[in-house]
């Protein structure tokens, strides 16, 4: 009896934590984390299903019985992406973006190999560094040459570097990504058989809607990605290769996924992934255009209000991100924490100019992403209101409590999730 009561008491606590999270992050906060999103109601409805808890280990053939519908739903997802990216080569089994990257490293490198990535201070994700999965493969990341003014890769110097260090591949994309990257130019500067991988985790939704860049058409061999940032699907990963990719090389990727890295690939997320992709086919263009308009409006308003927003001469951004250098306001960590107290959620971000110590401990910037607030229906004028909350807090020094109340009131106007079907539509 004592054990039952104790378990029930703890279950109530679990319930309480979930309710707290849902009230705070869903209803009372303005979420500006650039790597997050919310599912559409329809995708959410299909997220929990019998595939949860099932296995479908497979390479050439399934190792388990009972997998016919698991195969159906996986194929269904793949076909949507194959059609969108005009290719035969899609794998939706990676359970996250980092795992997708890991599969690439396992397929094409050996321990002690060199590869090129952006460098953490220039926006690389940790998975593309020696501290993340690349490091666990025993790889050495060598930073690309980076032009701080354009917040982009220096093509000639990076291509020379790649040849000099005999890099096995270059990992493009990144966690800080304001502008399309020079894939075409890099491809021209490197040999045709040099492996170019584009980690699209952040901008995958914009790419899917053809509103950012087309990595595979511009010369990348492979896209890796998460499926839950600007592409607002369930948390997961994906690998897509150009249609002319070699079959034997693709096999290496499939084998890296299974039996290499993943035994169960969280099949229950596939219905929600398919629904998100189908909703993106219909609403994605309009959504992506609004995301980019909102990001530009946010950046411009912050700039006009006196903030040090990156790249004013380049129109600030072409993606969902806005980067603000807040060093003079206490640095990225301190500013992000103060914003959190006012229910404005974003994260600290390092800049190319940060020393290695500052890049990890207290980087100079904050990173703002507008994909989720766009999903909740915000347009340019609404976004500018958020910029003014930030100014009132950080520059006018109005009390956190007062701003928090304003944020909670403001958030009440944006409850409905947009750019998706309604239940009544099906
Ligand atoms: C560029 C980039 N790649 C990979 C990842 C890792 O993705 P996931 O969290 O899906 O493993 C992230 C995460 O934010 C990222 O920004």
Poorly predicted parts: none
Q: Give the CA-based shape.
A: globular
Give, in spatial order, the strands making up the sheet with the most strands.
2-10-9-8-7
Give a count of the beta strands, DSSP E runs of length 2 or more.
15
**Strand coverage percent:** 5-15%
Count of runs of 4 or more consecutive helical residues: 16
Q: Which ions and ligands are bound to the chains?
A: pyridoxal-5'-phosphate
Radius of gyration from CA coordinates: 22 Å
CATH superfamily of the largest domain: Type I PLP-dependent aspartate aminotransferase-like (Major domain)
Level-1 CATH class name of the largest domain = Alpha Beta
How many domains is the backbone divided into?
2
Q: What separation lies between the terminal Cα atoms? A: 47 Å
Can you tell me the CATH topology of the largest domain?
A: Aspartate Aminotransferase, domain 2
Query: Mind summarizing the main beta sheet?
Result: 5 strands, mixed
CATH architecture annotation of the largest domain: 3-Layer(aba) Sandwich
What would you call the structural class? alpha/beta
Helix content: 40-55%
Mean pLDDT: 97
């Amino acid at each position: 009896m004592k054990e039952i009561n104790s378990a029930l008491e703890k279950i109530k606590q679990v319930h309480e934590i979930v309710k707290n999270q849902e009230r705070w992050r869903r209803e009372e906060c303005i979420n500006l984390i650039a790597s997050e999103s919310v599912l559409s109601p329809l995708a959410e409805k299909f997220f929990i299903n019998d595939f949860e808890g099932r296995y479908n280990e497979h390479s050439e053939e399934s190792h388990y019985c009972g997998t016919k519908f698991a195969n159906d739903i996986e194929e269904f997802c793949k076909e949507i992406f194959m059609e969108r990216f005009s290719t035969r080569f899609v794998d939706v089994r990676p359970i996250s973006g980092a795992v997708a990257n890991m599969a690439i490293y396992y397929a094409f490198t050996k321990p002690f190999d060199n590869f090129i990535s952006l460098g953490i201070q220039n926006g690389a994700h940790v998975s593309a560094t020696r501290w993340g999965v690349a490091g666990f493969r025993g790889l050495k990341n060598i930073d690309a040459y980076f032009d701080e003014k354009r917040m982009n890769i220096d093509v000639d110097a990076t291509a020379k570097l790649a040849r000099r260090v005999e890099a096995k591949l270059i990992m493009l994309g990144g966690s800080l990504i304001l502008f399309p990257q020079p894939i075409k130019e890099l491809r021209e500067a490197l040999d045709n058989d040099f492996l170019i991988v584009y980690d699209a985790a952040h901008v995958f939704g914009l790419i899917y809607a053809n509103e950012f860049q087309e990595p595979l058409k511009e010369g990348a061999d492979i896209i890796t990605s998460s499926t839950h940032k600007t592409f607002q699907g369930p948390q997961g990963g994906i690998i897509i290769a150009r249609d002319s990719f070699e079959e034997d090389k693709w096999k290496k990727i499939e084998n890296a996924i299974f039996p290499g890295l993943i035994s169960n690939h969280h099949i229950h997320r596939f219905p929600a992934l398919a629904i998100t992709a189908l909703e993106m086919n219909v609403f994605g263009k309009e959504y992506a255009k609004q995301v980019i308009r909102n990001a530009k409006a946010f950046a411009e308003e912050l700039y006009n209000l006196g903030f040090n927003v990156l790249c004013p001469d380049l129109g600030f951004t072409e993606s969902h991100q806005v980067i603000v250098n807040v060093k003079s306001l206490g640095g990225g960590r301190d500013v992000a924490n103060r914003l959190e107290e006012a229910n404005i959620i974003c994260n600290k971000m390092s800049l190319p100019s940060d020393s290695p110590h500052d890049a990890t401990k207290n980087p100079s910037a904050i990173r703002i992403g507008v994909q989720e607030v766009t999903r909740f229906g915000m347009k340019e004028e609404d976004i500018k209101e958020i910029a003014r909350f930030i100014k009132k807090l950080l520059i006018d020094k109005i009390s956190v409590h007062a701003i928090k109340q304003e944020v909670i009131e403001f958030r009440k106007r944006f409850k409905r999730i947009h750019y998706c079907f309604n239940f009544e539509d099906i």
